[in-house]
């Protein structure tokens, strides 16, 4: 069966889910400008972006296996460059960014960044979703759906890559999609969701210990065995933040921080009055 079948976009459901760049393309094949697309890569792109945005940084996702190109982008944007996880200093490890002192950061991530840029070029609004910000992302998604009957939400678990560059589905990404979808459907009980999305909710609700489950996945075990237990703990800190990274002009910006800052200014002004 060719991938051109209309069934592959999972419509008329307003909340839809599919894997990787191919799934994202299928779900945004029509009217992408009405879509909020939530890109989910728990270990670790989405978590790393979220932690950087928690520190107030803007994050430029770099979509190529090209260290020299990433370095050029960092110089052009006057940004710090996240190195490989095993390097000292700023890296793609979320643990390395908890005290980040940089206004801008370039994060190389061929799979997730490719999805972000490709689907953004179709006109969709892109956000980074993770376990850390599941409730906050669901709240933004609910507001997006409420704003217009034409609006929809697309959840994209990124997965990993096998050595032959084919997609390896990653359980931790499916769990995070389920956590976001479960919160979204609790906020909007009558919203229509695809069976693919409903399956992620069932998985999430049936998971008793998220830390053990994520730590026991192939990706989690790889990190634990390599000495990156902190990255797994940070990634599984469910609803730890209200920051939602939103892709604007090529960079993720921390929506939650902007909202919090605006509220703070209003509160200060009210106190002065």
UniProtKB/TrEMBL annotation:
GO terms for molecular function: 2-phosphosulfolactate phosphatase activity; magnesium ion binding. SUPFAM superfamilies: ComB-like (SSF142823). This is Probable 2-phosphosulfolactate phosphatase. It comes from the Bacteria. InterPro entries: ComB-like (IPR005238), ComB-like_sf (IPR036702). The keyword Hydrolase applies. Pfam families: 2-ph_phosp. Keywords: Hydrolase. Gene3D superfamilies: ComB-like (3.90.1560.10).
């Amino acid at each position: 069966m060719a991938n051109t079948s209309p069934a592959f976009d999972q419509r008329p459901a307003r909340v839809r889910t599919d894997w990787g760049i191919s799934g994202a393309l299928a779900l945004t094949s029509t009217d992408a400008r009405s879509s909020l697309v939530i890109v989910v890569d728990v270990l670790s792109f989405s978590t790393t972006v979220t932690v950087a945005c928690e520190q107030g940084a803007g994050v430029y996702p770099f979509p190529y296996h090209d260290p020299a190109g990433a370095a050029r982008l960092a110089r052009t944007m006057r940004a710090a460059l996240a190195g490989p996880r095993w390097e000292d200093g700023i890296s793609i490890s979320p643990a390395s960014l908890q005290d980040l002192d940089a206004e801008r950061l370039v994060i190389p991530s061929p799979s997730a960044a490719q999805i972000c840029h490709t689907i953004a070029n179709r006109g969709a609004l892109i956000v980074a979703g993770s376990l850390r910000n599941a409730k906050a992302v669901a709240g933004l998604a609910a507001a997006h759906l409420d704003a217009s009957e034409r609006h929809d939400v697309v959840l994209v678990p990124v997965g990993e890559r096998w050595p032959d560059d084919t997609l390896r589905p990653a359980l931790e990404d499916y769990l995070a999609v389920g956590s976001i979808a479960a919160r979204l459907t609790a906020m909007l009980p009558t919203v229509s969701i695809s069976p693919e999305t409903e399956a992620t909710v069932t998985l999430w609700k049936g998971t008793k210990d998220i830390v053990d489950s994520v730590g026991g996945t192939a990706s989690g075990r790889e990190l634990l065995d390599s000495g990156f237990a902190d990255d797994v703990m940070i990634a599984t800190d469910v609803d730890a933040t209200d920051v939602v990274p939103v892709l604007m002009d090529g960079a993720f910006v921390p929506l939650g921080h902007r909202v919090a800052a605006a509220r703070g200014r209003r509160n200060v002004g009210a106190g002065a009055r």
